[in-house]
Each structure stands twice: as structure tokens, then as C-alpha cells.
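User: C-alpha cells for ABC-type branched-subunit amino acid transport system substrate-binding protein, please.
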Amino acid sequence: MVRRTSAAFVIAVLAAAGCAAQQQQGGQQGQGTAAGVTDTTIRIGGVLTKTSASGYSTKDAEIGAKARFERANAEGGVHGRKIEFLGAEDDGQDAAKGDAAAKKLVQKDQVFALVPVHAPNFGGAAFLEQQGVPWFGWATGPQWCGTKTGFGYNGCLAPKQGAGSQTWWGRQMADLLGGSDGKSVYVQTSDSSGSKYGGTTISQSFTAAGFELAGVNSGLPAAAPPPDWLPYVNKIMTSDDGGPPDVVVSVIAGTKFNVGLYAALKRAGYQGVLTDATSYDVAILKDPASAQALEGVVAAPMFEPFESTAPEIAKLKADVEKVAPGTQLTQHLAIGYWAADIFLDMLNKTGKDLTREKFLATGNGSYLYENAGFGRIQYPKDHSEPNGCGALVKLEGGAFQVAKSMKCFDNVPLK
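Assistant: Done. Predicted C-alpha cells:
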């Protein structure tokens, strides 16, 4: 009898210890806490496209997020809890791998939220929405739109017809050129669905700012740059009543495409303004041919440029230098940094009694945050439309210059 009682006691103790260990691993310490949360820490991990067959990589976003989290920890954390950043998984630009990475972080690593998520083909959105797990990053695709858990720092870039669509690019360009009266714009996209969609929203951005639309061409194959740019150049150079447009907007994914198009336009004698969303990249300056082709191009990042004198950018630079001295500042790094910044602000506004439910209630309950580094974000509105903010950067003399600092404009319904 004594032996049976002792055995039962041992089993009970082991069961209790096992339960406690599970709670410790899942972060379930104290009333009102959640998975990934203890009295002193909040566990976070991300998903990035670190590697891909094309060479495209968003790995620098991990440095940006780490830099912002390290400053938060140095300042004492958020309501006494410090960020335990596990780093980011690599989805290899594969949707299935992204889904598996999200499940690993939530089910095995027991994270509270995913920060940063910066992967064009991210496949974990449905799982995170079903599980009620928050995720923050760059909203580059429709999987960010219409969710309650996905918080893109720039809102939703794929609004549905009738929802708000951005006007900032056209209006910033109009301000830069001293007005849009009598000025025309031509939009060149590829035949990919994303590029075509971008052509629609960006065309409307410029027409909303008063530009005349000279044309939109979506016939460029997205697989690789064409062997001959002349057919595309000829269309552009005669698009405005037989003459060239004042502005050419490139909605093409890849520096090689833009270098080829811009070089061909310059050879044809084009004297107008060239603009795109991707040419703000210091790596371009290492290649003389690319730098020459992109000289004078106006890039349109959705964050305040690194060349800015804004205090928020000085903080970003100092934060990055502390965790990764000598790191080259890139667009992907900025995206990771600002995604982490918004997450921390939402965390602070939620309060010490932290659960995912309360956190999401904060984020989806008339949430507003403004910062000169990225503009402004409002939820739940920006689950269905972009935040309407952006800047312009011009490549002049082999160096980037701030053409227009970050500014936010009202959206208009997408036609």
C-alpha cells in the first residue's frame, strides 16, 4: 500500500512538473499572459526571403528588426518585458516553406507574434489568421489585405475596387515638378498580375494628382528582360500625341529591367523624368553601367530616406550601428526596423496585461500611430487600403539625394 501510494505520488509530481515545463516553454506565466509571454519576456520570430533562385533577398530586414528590439530592451523593455528575438526563418520565396516556417514559429517555438514578415510569396497568412497570431512587415501582396492579424507598416497595397487607393506618388511628383498641369505620364509594367495591378493603382495616383495618362503598357514579359527594348521605347517616345511623355513610371520588378529600359530611353533621347519604386538601392552604385543608367531617376520609397536629417532616421542609424557596425543601409533593413517599431508601439498601448486577444483588440480598435520615419498607419482602415505615405529620392552625381521627404496624402476610391 505504501509502495502504491509512493508510486502514485511520484507520478503526480512528474505530471505536475511536466505541466509546469510545458507552461514555461509556452510562456504561460501569470494570469493574463499568452503563448510566448512571461513576466519578463516576449518571444518573437520572423519569416523572410533570405535566399531565392533569382537572388532576391530580404535578409537585411532581420538586422533592422533586431536593431529596434535591442533599443527597446536597453530602455527597459515594454511594461517590464524584454523582447526575446529568435531571428527569422527563410522561406526561399516558396509559399509552402513560408507556411511551414509560420507553423514552426507558432507551434514549436511558441512565439507571441511574427516580426518581421517580409516575403513576397508568404504562404503562412491563412494559418496565422486562423490561429489569431499577429504578424508585422511589408504588405507586398494581397495576403496582407482583409485580415485582422496582418499589420503591414504600409497598409494594404492591393485594395479592392471602391476601397482607398494611394495618391501620394503622383502628388509628391507633382510637387517636385512644380505642378502637373499639362504634364503627361506613361506607365510601363510587365505581364505579371502584380505588376499589372500596380500599374492600375499607380496610374490612378498620377491622374488623381492632375497628370494626363499618355498610356499603360503591360506587354513586357516578366520572366527576363527582352533582347530588344526598341519596341517598348518607340511606344513610349510617341505616346503623348506623337511625342514623349513628361514622366515615365516603371512598375517592373528588378534592377536589370529598369537599367535596360532607362538606358534604351536615354539612347533614344528621352529628356523627361524616370521614376520607379525599387531603384533606391546602394548596391546599384557599385556597378558603373547601372549607376549611369539610373542617373537622374526618382525612386519612391515608402519610408523616410536614410539621407534625411529627421531625428527618427538618426535614431535608426545609431540603433543599427550598435548591433551591426558598418552595415549598409537598405530598403529591406528599413522595412524590418519600422515593422518592429509599430509592433512595439501597439504592444505598449495594449498594456501589461497581455494576451493576443487584447493585443489584436488594440490594433484593430481605432489604432493610430504616426512617425516621421514611415508616415502614419491606421487600423482597421489600413487592413484594406494603403497608408497613403511616401517619399522621393533622386540619384544625382552617383549619390542619392532626398527629393521629397515623407508625406501622407488622402487616398481615393480605386476605380
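User: Anything notable?

Assistant: Residues 2-26 form the longest helix (25 residues).
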